[in-house]
């Protein structure tokens, strides 16, 4: 029995939802570059049904999702206390996700309602922590536009709507990543949806997974606010053998296809919001890392700047990632349940060999 570190290269199951074969990202066979131009609801439908919706289906599906973007009164009451706690917002989201699984007849909650509630809860956490009033959804807006509206209090322009839909689509799924695989392990036990999502949120919180976007912006802020020369900063970090967040990917050795798309969005938003200094720093760091380390930016690198340009605090960045990825998590939970197979791998034991207990003889 061979053992691959971190299960790298190990096929741990089958899926029809998404693939990173040949370093290309596809959802149900569709290239991400083509899907990036769609509406978020279209891609959610695709992930859950492995086909794109017909026009009439999309209208009904979108209407259903948006009209479920409401939280139970009991959840809002408890959130008003929980969200103000000093813990990291991802810890608040972890507790909130678990809480959603205990309020208001959750036995009948299905993926559309669950996704809608998670997005609404994340927006509520952000607003409460900022001491701002909660915002009700607008039935005239799509799901991604409503989510951005409920986060910021501003209805997106047509241009920003296209950008934000693309951002959410690019983060919606990514094969058997750490948080998705965690959700599938829990789903394989036939646990409920909210338990699966709570576990996924816990996995996403880590800085080597979803939490990387926050670390990226910390790095950019450090450089910009201290007026440090970007190349001096990065060479010192490498010399000190510190990890440079936002670069490299276990799957994509020639560049993350999502990062190529996000780069253009980050540049456009940086210009519109007078954050060009951050984008210029990013370009210098990216050129250095490619030349000296042969590493390309990954999905977290440009997402960090995009979220900053939207007026969000860095502590909330990973929650926005979670909002997008919930669509994929739910798709995988449904698929794993259909497979009716408990995930229970073997391990390679590397501890002491045969040992025996020695009984002390009484005198």
From TrEMBL:
State the active site: 249, 300
Q: Which UniProt keywords apply?
A: Transferase
Which is an annotated Pfam family here?
Citrate_synt
Q: Which Gene3D superfamilies match?
A: Citrate Synthase, domain 1, Cytochrome P450-Terp, domain 2
UniProt record, GO biological process: carbohydrate metabolic process; tricarboxylic acid cycle
Q: Which reaction does it catalyse?
A: oxaloacetate + acetyl-CoA + H2O = citrate + CoA + H(+)
In its UniProt record, a GO molecular function of this protein is: citrate synthase activity
**Pathway of action:** Carbohydrate metabolism; tricarboxylic acid cycle
The record's section on SUPFAM superfamilies has:
Citrate synthase
Q: Which GO terms describe its cellular component?
A: cytosol
Give the family this protein belongs to, as stated in its UniProt record. Belongs to the citrate synthase family.
Protein's name in the database: Citrate synthase
Q: Which organism is it from?
A: Liquorilactobacillus capillatus DSM 19910
Source taxonomy: Bacteria, Bacillati, Bacillota, Bacilli, Lactobacillales
